[in-house]
Each structure stands twice: as structure tokens, then as C-alpha cells.
Design brief:
Blueprint (H helix, E strand, L loop, with lengths): L20 H24 L11 H12 L3 H32 L1 H15 L7 H8 L3 H25 L3 H9 L4 H30 L1 H5 L7 H10 L3 H29 L1 H6 L1
Helix pairs in contact: 2-11, 3-4, 3-6, 3-8, 3-10, 4-6, 5-6, 6-8, 7-8, 8-11, 10-11
């Protein structure tokens, strides 16, 4: 009787089993190929009106033409707004989230306030932000800030709570005071998860971009899309959506790269 082979061929569907990098890459590309193929075929077959749903190749040609004009300036302005507002959110959320996750007293004081704000939709603040901050950059940056800061605080607080209690107790046993435990134990332990939370919330910030840039704005990707809507230039709107998606992926990849470079020991552990 022939013994079973140890080199069993990899099956497509295995519960909780990792797949090879090559197969993951193939599957990741395949979903996009199928998406654009169905889109192109649907437009060619007349299943949708091309005025409202232009074909992928038309959107691509439109995007190339826009990049040769003033659109790069709009892209740069949108990136500036995202980064500046997100930096402000991180400067508040990171220390406050770690503080709330480390000390139950701080959580009891701040969490009722933070939790209430998480349930308020950021776009609902647009009228009052316009009244308070005018029609300049202020309301756009404030809207992007409000959209992410309270969720980011909560995520960082939860990650901080997950720091192993044993290492904190060990530091206390060795005579460390609260400041030493916070800076030499808790902060280093939670920092990788803080970066993950920031990466997740940066994606949310991009989803608020168009809403922020329709607030009395003449520049940015969102403003360009609103101008295109007035003239039924759907291909330009689609091009703007594609650019936001690509920028989001690029920044996500940069965060992943930063995470790998800053915490190589996590990669080796896997």
C-alpha cells in the first residue's frame, strides 16, 4: 500500500490555512480584471447608459487628459487637507487614547464625552462650521478632523487596554513608578497597534474628502467632481473617484511599509 504523499497539492479552499503569496497576488489581480471586464462589457452591450456610466477606457483617457491640465494641483490640495487634518487628529487622539486605556479614572472622565461624539455624523456640522469658520480652509479641515478623531481615540484606548497585564505588574514589582511604566512599558507595547489604528482611520478620512470639499470650495478633487456634475461630465467624476481610491491605496501601503520597518520583530514572529 502506497503511503500518502506529504506534498499534497494546495487546495483553493482550506479553513484557516494561509495561502502562498503568488496565489494571493493572482486572486487580488483577478477580482479587478473581472470587475473592469464586466463594466466594459455592460457598457458595450448597452446595459447601462454611457452618459451616466462611461466605460473604463473612456474614464482612463479622461483621467490622462485631466492630469495634463490643472487636476494635479487639485490632487495636491486634497492631499494637503487630508494630511493636515489627520495629523491634528493624531496629536490629540494618540496621547488621550493611551491615557484612557492606561488609567480607569481617565476613561471614566473622558469616555462618556468621546462616545457621545462618535454617534454624531460629521456632515451634520457643516452649517455650523461655515458659520463659525467662514468659507476658507477652516471648515474643511475641521470636518475631516471631526470625522476621525473620536473613533481614533476609542480604537487606541481599546488597544491600550489589551496590553498584557503581566508586563505591567512585573514593572511594578521591579519598583517602576507610573511615569516609567507608561513610557517604557505601555507606550512601546501599544505603539504597533496605534499605527494600525491610524492606518485604519486614515482610510475613513479619505471617505470624508468629497463631503469636505463641497463646502464652499473651488479647489480639490471634490470641488472638481461637483463642477463636473453640473455639466454631466460623468467620466470626470469617475476619474476623481479612481484617483481617491488610488491615493487611499498608496497611503495604506506607506503605512504598512512604515509598520514593517518600525517593528520588524512582529514580522519575524509571524
Amino acid at each position: 500500500m502506497t503511503p500518502p504523499s506529504n506534498n499534497r497539492r494546495e487546495r483553493w479552499f482550506e479553513f484557516l490555512r494561509p495561502i502562498s503569496a503568488r496565489r494571493a497576488w493572482i486572486l487580488g489581480v483577478a477580482i479587478w480584471v473581472l470587475f473592469f471586464a464586466f463594466w466594459e462589457l455592460g457598457v458595450a452591450a448597452g446595459a447601462v447608459t454611457e452618459l451616466l456610466v462611461p466605460s473604463p477606457h473612456k474614464v482612463l483617457m479622461t483621467l490622462i487628459g485631466m492630469l495634463a491640465g490643472d487636476f494635479p494641483a487639485d490632487i495636491a490640495i486634497s492631499i494637503y487637507r487630508i494630511l493636515l487634518s489627520f495629523l491634528g487628529a493624531c496629536l490629540l487622539a494618540v496621547p488621550l487614547g493611551i491615557l484612557m486605556g492606561s488609567f480607569r479614572t481617565a476613561e471614566a472622565f473622558f469616555n462618556p464625552f468621546v462616545s457621545a461624539w462618535r454617534y454624531l455624523p460629521a456632515p451634520s456640522f457643516i452649517p455650523i462650521l461655515l458659520m463659525w469658520l467662514g468659507t476658507g480652509e477652516g471648515p474643511k479641515l475641521a470636518l475631516l478632523f471631526i470625522g476621525v478623531v473620536f473613533f481614533l481615540i476609542t480604537l487606541i484606548m481599546d488597544h491600550t487596554k489589551d496590553v498584557r497585564r503581566e508586563i505591567v505588574e512585573t514593572a511594578m514589582t521591579l519598583g517602576a513608578n507610573r511615569r516609567q511604566i507608561l513610557w517604557t512599558v505601555i507606550v512601546p507595547a501599544v505603539l504597533p497597534d496605534v499605527l494600525v489604528a491610524m492606518r485604519q482611520m486614515l482610510a475613513v478620512s479619505w471617505t470624508y474628502l468629497v463631503i469636505a470639499e463641497i463646502v464652499a470650495s473651488t479647489t480639490g478633487i471634490g470641488a472638481m467632481m461637483m463642477r463636473a456634475r453640473r455639466f454631466l461630465h460623468t467620466d470626470e467624476i469617475m476619474a476623481g473617484i479612481v484617483v481617491i481610491g488610488v491615493l487611499g491605496i498608496v497611503f495604506d501601503m506607506l503605512f504598512r511599509l512604515g509598520h514593517h520597518l518600525a517593528f520588524p520583530y512582529l514580522r519575524e514572529r509571524r
